[in-house]
Amino acid sequence: MTRPLMAGNWKMYKTPTETQHFFEKFNALVADVRHCEILICPPALDLTTAVEATIQTNVAIGAQNLYPGKEGAFTGEISGRMIKSAGCCHVLIGHSERRRYFHETDANVFEKTVAALEAGLTPVVCVGEVLEEREGGKTEEVLVRQFRGGLGELTADQFAELVVAYEPIWAIGTGKTATPKIAADAHATIRKEAAKVFGSSAAKSLRILYGGSVKPDNVGILMAQEEINGVLVGGASLDPLSFAKIVNYRNSDRFLETQPHQLMHSR
Ligand code: PGA
After folding, report:
1. SS3 106
2. What is the rounded average pLDDT for all residues in the chain?
């Protein structure tokens, strides 16, 4: 069984100096972690600082977006090749904020996923429904459409490389977390669709992360769900102690006892 992936998405927060300060604290807090993989996705401008700050640690660095082309006249964009050569291993694709504010479609998600794989990066492809879709009973339909449109045309080998993140949009940055059952049911829907397209063994091995208001105090019940193979954390990944507590979800009591000094500072 693959280890869970505990990922942080910093969105448009932190300068290079703030990035440096984050890792000065965070690396020590997670130095002994073996039960999961740790990934942080800072803004593009911070990637080099983050990679340098995590050399010879158990923390991996990923980007938040890429342009699907090797190079060219695309002002303001960065390619998978650039991200890879900066020392990153993952890239987020199709985050709901990219879909909503930058009009990314499932077709863009497909192109970007292929470009990431060709550059040797692991894509973390985000899917999820808005509140009206959930309330209108359309969650399954939306997830299936996003899955088919974004990932359905990949080859089996390509599919085996990626991670999917289920992020219900109504839970992102709102403080409303999906209940463990809602999250697990949505993961099961995605896995069922993956089995239809790529076969049951590929679907079983697919890592599906949950994202949307994950915090130190709810990560334990989410991770207790068999369907949840990790988390994608926005707001609570910005503070080193908060994200370290999330990473240490299995023994947070022991972890808290051993970090009394830093815990006091976080309050
Ligand atoms: P949040 O963000 O944890 O702040 O809700 C999650 C995400 O957008 O990836």
Report:
1. helix
2. 93
